[in-house]
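Repro:
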Amino acid sequence: MDPKGKVALITGGARIGQAVAQALAARGCALALTYRTSREAAEAAAKSAVDAGVRALVLHADATDEAQIRAAVNETASKLGRLDILINLASTYVQTPQPSAADWNAALDSNARSAFLFSIHAAPIMKAGGGGRIVNVSDWLAISGRPHYKGYTPYYASKAAVAALTESMALDLAPEILVNAIAPGPVLAPPDLNAEELSEVLAATPLARWGGAQEIAKTALFLIETDFVTGESIRVDGGRHLA
């Protein structure tokens, strides 16, 4: 699929979302950007898109609220005229050493259920327009079958669920809609990592660096532009899974 002249809905407008938005806008794709708390980041991405010569829309939507999700999808199609691409970036990453039922529900809702709900509401619009692309975000650990870090059970399970969701929806929505996932590794360093922890990550990554948000944007573009890849989860981790 050529992104030019298409419309993409991107959930989660901060950091990686801004890089993906910029890459799509540069290729002539109009954008709808949803946010829950990161309004400034979404608005900055929208302004950059408009400066690049494409239309852009900023929408408030809690990715765990189905009514708000439905409204955001419908408003995107109504105001921008179509919906061809869905990038499910909205996500949370929370350590839960002694997880509760509430922790479990929060992780599954924000990481897996949100992608499911955005997808089921976007898919009929995409099919009516001739087809589309859905790109989800899992995690290199879940794709590799390596829990590795203690205290992340709800998070890990939610990202494994995203991979399963991607495979199942790819089957259900074929051939009109291709559904794939990106599984990031060390892309952006969390702000709370100390120098020793940063060094440990680099030592365990064969490419010996953090990837940066642009690597996710490049992968998203590939999954949008391909016409023969579906149901895949692609690790973008600098070879971290090999160590």
